[in-house]
Every structure is written in C-alpha cells, then in structure tokens.
Design brief:
Helix content is 36%, strand content 29%. It is an alpha+beta fold and 319 residues long.
Length: 319
Amino acid sequence: MTIAPITGDIAAALGITPAELPLFLRDEWAGIVGAGMERLGIFNKDGKAVAAFHLHRTRRSGLRLISHPAHTQNCGLWRKRLASNPAKAVGEAKKLHGLLADHLLAQDGMIHLAFPPEETDLQPWAWKGFKVVAQWTYRIDLAQGMEAVRAGYEAEQRNAIKKSRAGSADTVRTDDPERVLRMVRSAFQRKGKGLDEGVAMGLLKAFLKPGTGAAFITVEGGHDTAAAFTASSAGVAYYLLGGVDKVHASAGAGAMAVDAAIAEAKASGQHIFDFEGSMIPEVERYFRAFGGTPTPYFTVNRAPFLTEVALKKKLRHLF
C-alpha cells in the first residue's frame, strides 16, 4: 500500500456517496482551516483507495507541527473493512496504522494526531515510538429512541428543561448564522475567552444547510437566550457550537436548545450524537448531564528528542 494526495472528488475516489464521508473528511473543512491542510489516500497495489484522512501542517512557536485539521476532533480517517475474519480484520488495521506511522516518522517536526473513536487499535504507533494518549467525548446512542434518551438526562437537567418550558421558553429552528453567533459570542464573553468569529461563522456557513446541519434557538420573553448548532454526516451528529445569554436565560434554556438538536439528529436518521470532545472539566460536567457514554478516542504524539523534553514542561500529558 502507498500513501498519496487525493485530488478531486474524495467520495468518488473511495467509491462511496458523499453522505457516507465522515464529517471531518468533507470538503467544507478546507475553507475553514485554510492553508496547510492536505487530503491523503491510502492506495492498494491496484491503485484503488482503501482509506483516506486529513493532515494539517502549520507552525507553533516556530516549530513544524503535523496534526489533525484545526477545529476538528480528529483526522477523519475512513477505511474500508475488507476482512470478515476477526483475526484478519485486526491484522488489516495494524498494517494500515503501521503504514501511517511510518509515513509520519519520515516527516520533520512535531506530531499530534487524533483518530476517530472507532479506531481503537493504535498499538503499531506505540511500537514505533509514539506516545498514544486517550482523550474523551460523550456520545449518545440514538437508536434507543428519544424517550429513553431523555430518561437518561440527569434529573436536575430534566427539571430545568421542564421549568423553562412551563415559563415562556420555546425552541425554534433557525438558518440564520448571525443569530447563532450572537449566542456563542455571549458565552465566550462571559467566560472571558476570545472567540475566533471568522472560524465560527465559517462553520455555520459551511454546515448550516438542509441535510448537513441544524441550529436551534431558545426564545424567552422575546429574547434569544441560548443556541445549539450541530453538523451531521455518516450517521453521526456533532455538537459544534453553542452558547447561553445568562442575562435573559432561564436555568434550562441551554439544555432546551441541546435537547432540540438531539431530537433533530434522531429524526434525521443519525445514529449517534457526539458532543465533540469533553476534556475541559466545566464543559465535561455540562455534557455529562445529558446521559451520554464517556467514549475514548486516541491521539498519537511524537517530537524530536530535545523538543519533546522542552514540551514536557507544559504538555506532559501528551509528550
């Protein structure tokens, strides 16, 4: 097998429909991430693509960095499962990951690359000297139906939603990116954090489209008080942006918007609702209240020796 750039229609190159592409492998990310992103395929001896993924090349503090694209949870790896025998399937995955590891070992600079949760066997990376580190997200299995999903919410969350609905709160669907951005901006300002509004608007414009994304606003007393925005592909809906206006919002406003987004994901035929990373304790606590399953996904990390020693001061959990 060989690794080479994919140009043109990636879905056609893989022999699948665009709807089967993982969200983070879709064309839309190129315009959001900008320069340095490259799409690579893994090809068999007959020249047919059996896998594809994204890389992003940039610089951090003057050092070259190869990672999954900015603003994505992972590199979007998609691969054909060719073997039906369990032992052969494991060997197939190990061979592919070994090839990927060798490809990155031949590159200059630091490496920090995340893989989808479905990729659980990253042993070849460890064999080749990479540090394999788990991160976590929360995922909700939508196959159980919305009644069961809502029953899994924390009681405090269910009660907050109930009280807000009993008041003046209602949720509406919107296709207005600016309306969503105002709520996201409000949340970042409240927390004293900077928001890259260009990226946020890029996400909204790219994915807030029928069949790809959905946004819901909680409205109370004539005010927009919360928003939740998701994008979907290949059966998975990802929660990408959200925010609450604490000045006018009731306790359940934010949860109402998220609940509406989960219900829409189920109604549109998605199988999984993914909170797209839950590593910040404050954020993790909020996402946990929706009853999802803590789901690990793995990153592989490596840097030149002296660089790695220096990085241990601030990024010991990775290097």
